[in-house]
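Still learning. Any example?
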Amino acid sequence: MSQSLPHTVNNSLKTTLRRLWSFPGGIKLDGKKSLSNQHAITTLEVSRQLVIPLTQHIGHAAQPVVKVGDQVLKGQLLAHAEGPISAPVHASSSGIVSAIEERPIPHPSGLSAPCVVIDTDGYEQWLELSPLILPSTGEMQGIASLSSVQIKQQIANSGVVGLGGALYPCAAKLQSAQKMHTDTLIINAAECEPYITCDDVLMRTRPEEIILGILLIKKVVGAKKCLIGIEDNKPEAYQALVKAIRGYQQTISRYQREANSEAKIEVVQVPTRYPAGGEKQLIQVLTGQEVPTQGLPMNIGIICHNVTTAAAAYQAVFRGEPLISRIVTVTGGAIKHPQNIEVPLGTPIRDVLEHVGLNSNEVDKIILGGPMMGFALPSIDTPVTKATNCLLVSAKNELKTPPPAMPCIRCARCAESCPMSLLPQQMYWYAKARDLEKIQDYNIFDCIECGCCSYVCPSNIPLVQYFRYAKTEIWDDERERNKANIARERHEFHLERLEKAKLAKAEAARLRKEKLAKKKAEDKKIAQQASKTDTSGDARDAKKSAASHSDLIQEAIARSKAKKAQQQAQKKNTDNLTEAQQKQIDAANKRRRDNARNIARDNAGNDIQTEASASDDQDQ
């Protein structure tokens, strides 16, 4: 249903009527914005010591590239991004790195995190900057000359993150939008939380930077149109944006014609109703489209950025300045001079409060953020970070302290006020019972933790705290399951590897056995063949040996006969012997004959005895 029909400014600058839609639930709150939006933005002097956390964004912490003792310049890289979902961190002032250690950071539980500590030298000496668009180049001409890759890389190198509270790295979000073929760019200028006016004052004082930053983002994502959603309780900011668009209108139109685009920029006033500044709620009001459950705006062709993020993109591309400061609203009943201050990142919150004048005797709470979604700081010695949009220092009795919680009376006011159409009372019961599976059936992760349910609850039940607790428990369980799954997969992989090794070993043994058996068979076959060859060879050798032995005997006989014949043919030396010599010779010949007869007789006796023994053996 249409809530209002405000004037808008499109690319032809004709006043038109635009239909608006509505979102369920929501509440009307006293904005308390006039406390701090009546003055221009002031600048805070740099502190003597800056504590710059390495985790000022969603994702992995940045990894330091400096060491203790290094001299650094303003804008110098201190830590580079670690992975695609991360952002670099830069020095907010010049000085010397005195420590890289864990220090307390702004967190409800007072957690500590790695930080780079810089002792400033007071010179504020800048590193040489490298803007992509020089002052001599026309602004629109400069944007037209840049590629989307150049713009996106410059934004990434400058450490720009979502400054509306999400802290998602801007370059990573632009990269995803490019892949999802985004059609519409929505700039969130609603700033619906009470007390906070940093976006309001930025739009009043620097609207040109916002418009140029929007054009840079629009070029990267390729969006055809851009809608700037602003609550109707900010008429000055609305008029400033309209005037800035009018000043750039001719160049914008020419640029769009050259790019063959039907793009247009519209400033649209939306009804003031909390939480109209929620991303999903603003999209629904401006377009009538609903982001799917547990989905993203990019699923319906929309990307949403905060006005401060657009201004940071302008500073990165046109000035070459990294994100080293941000505008912080310092307000509340205990502040003497509520105002908006541009504060260097890493500045102790204590220094900021001293700058604006703190009525220490009247302080009740010091809240980082607004009264609906902020949290009380356990210490003011923590630093200002990219997430610090407001420091609310309430006086006593300024913010109502809820009495102790009472039992739920099932009045359903929480469900009526929920802008996400959830059932907070049911989620409360399951969160209290720690039934984490059942509470997910009620889409707890669609809860934006706006605090409407807690605000309207007559029993003063801190519903949002229960939902945050349930989300944390679910995330913890998910992490434990992931760890268990990783351990199980590693164990299964280990067993599989052992089984494969066992099978490979068995297969290798089988192959060795087969190879050995094959070798034995081949050796046996070769041995058999060799045995057959040796047998036939032995027979031939035996015959050959016998024949050779017979030949040798015949040769010996022949030599003996030849020798005898030769001896007989020779002249004998027995002639002319004396009688005594002849007798000696005859006696010797007789002895030889007697010996020969004796030998023959003995041999004959031995043969007879051998035959007798053989005969006896046969008889036995």
Notes: The two ends are 139 Å apart (CA to CA). The chain has 15 helices and 19 strands.
